[in-house]
Amino acid sequence: MLNKAKALKGFTLDSLDGAIGKINEFYFDDLHWTIRYVVADTGNWLAGRQVLISPYALADVNEEEKSIAINLTKKQIEDSPSLDSDKPVSRHFEEDYYGHYGWPMYWGGPYLWGAYPYIVRDREKWRESTQAEKAWDPHFFVIILLSIIGVAITDYAPTASWAYWIFMVAALGTSAVAIEKTLLHRKDVSFTKLWVTQLIHWGVTLVAILLSFTFIKTGRMTNESSGLVILLILSLSTFLDGYHVGWRFYLAGIFLGITAVLAAYFEEFMWIMLVIAATIIVFSIYLEKYLMANHNAIQEPDGKF
Asked: Is residue 227 within 8 Å of 238, Cβ to Cβ?
């Protein structure tokens, strides 16, 4: 049965071991048009702090008795991260809050409640969605592969490499937008701001690459040295975009930077680059497993409910 939020104001909140207070107000997410928290008026108990109850904890609404059952104990609520009455709800606080109760973080997926468009309370499904989301991300492997191809083209046919590196900029920019779009719910920013930021970032990168080719025509730079400069430009741009996109772009940027150094100091560097590429891919797989295990660990609740 659906209930209007306004009609629930003043309802008593009944924990597993007694009433904790009444509903005072709500925290409304105007980006996704949903209620993120119920704010409880606990009277003298837990005075001076905001007592927030996530919809994950709401179990049943009793309209006759004007009460809502919540699947938490008073001890769990009392031990939850404290937020002063005059402080806004920050993402740092929410991370501590959701970690305390072992709930999946709603900004951890593309939908209204993370991996789902509705609240799911089955913990096995939480793990399944996490594993499905993190088991495979083709963007990083494609970027590494395209980088190897680009370096090979530059090494064996430097005069024909300019078209490929322009394509590479477009590929990196598209991958960045695609990856960051899946993280949009975590950042509270619009998609328009996202793609404009990426457009500026990779647009400037493209201009820098085109300028390096003009230096060849003026005789100020050789094809070989231009290729090294382009690798460094892409390395820096990819690494810096890791701030927005995530750790995979940091790794890709480091790989491009190492490749540029190898190309500058060694004649036969392709096999070394392949070994480094394989090492980075293996490292990324183990890092992914570590992050997944760490993510699953914080899903374990502090207490039963």
From this structure: no
Helices 223-245, 247-265: crossing angle, 10 deg rounding? 160
pLDDT digits (tens, 9 = 90+) for 218-262: 877 787 788 888 889 999 999 999 988 888 899 999 999 998 888
Contact 106, 91 (CB under 8 A): no
Q: 3-state class of 150 per DSSP? A: helix
Two tokens, residue 134: 């993190």
Query: Strand 12-15 and strand 67-70: pairing?
Result: parallel
Q: Where are the domains of the chain?
A: 8-101, 138-294
Give the Cα separation of 125 and 172 in Å (integer). Answer: 33
Enter the pTM of the model.
0.57
- Helix (H) or strand (E) run with residue 41 in it: strand 34-41
Distances (CA, A) of 125 to 99, 132, 236, 297: 17, 10, 39, 15
Compute the distance between CA of residue 15 and CA of residue 8 in angstroms, rounded to an integer: 16
Q: What is the CATH number of domain 8-101?
A: 3.90.50.10
CA–CA gap between residue 64 and residue 302 (Å, rounded): 33
CA distance 2 to 149: 56
Q: Is pLDDT above 60 for 132?
A: no
Tokens of 177: 């937008």
